[in-house]
Amino acid sequence: MPLFDLPLDELRDYRSASAEPEDFDAFWSKTLQESREHDLDARFEPVDTGLTTVRTYDVTFAGFGGHPVKGWLTVPAGADAPLPLIVEYIGYGGGRGLPHEHLLWASTGRAHFVMDTRGQGSGWGGGGGTADPVGGAPAYPGFMTRGIDAPENYYYRRVFTDAVRAVEAARSHPLTDAARTVAIGGSQGGGITLAVGGLVPDLTAVAPDVPFLCDFPRATTLTDRHPYREIGLYLKTHRGRADEVRRTLSYFDGVHFAARGRAPALFSAALEDLTCPPSTVFAAFNAWAHEDKDIEVYEFNDHEGGGPYQEAAKARWLAGRL
Question: Residues that bind substrate, according to the entry (predicted)?
Fold first, then answer.
């Protein structure tokens, strides 16, 4: 796929036209306050994985609405004191998978928590185990339009709340150091990382790779690739609801969370990425509020982005911050 978006020099200055709701902060403050009325009830059950270099815990905690959310916590086998904590979020359609799918970050001497994504985990990888017990209005198959009739009902309100609670759950374990906490993720996981970066004020760093859920006004009209295309197909049937949908999505746009980012950040973008177009990634990067930020650019890659090269870049970058 040849380059299809703005030239790189224009990307570095690009700003989103996404309109931030006046009650954005109030909406999220109320959402998190309501969630915290439920006991976090974080439980860590040791798992016999057969692996000798790490210890893994099967985690359950209360997310949005007190609903049970799963995760894995993996630490180096010999850990006996609090470790820097890396909280990871998963790409669209995936779940927490199996413990042996997540060995990189514990192998660097950190505690690693991976959150299951409610209702997902059936599209790729080793699967997931977290249901989404909330129903909703008619939606296009997928997750992008579930509850899109109103911000209060939207699917990602639940997911982003789960993600904040995941940080709180992971920090509650005695082998994690709450003062050294990093959020990471790619694609959908990158979009969730941006939300957490805007909602959790005391993170050490964030690293969103080719993040999804950014600059909805441009993304939904620039690419015809799923998952963004789900929104267009919904509106193709539900004619006349575009303004209502835009309003809902504005509460979940990574650009607005980025404007509240208070930690150093390492982004990545791929210039041939048709799933998360580079301009939408740069929209969030350029809005990121903390001055210590950088972005790795992969000129000839699609949505796979930097892949293992980006993992190596993150490891080097985090070494100076943890």
Answer: 92
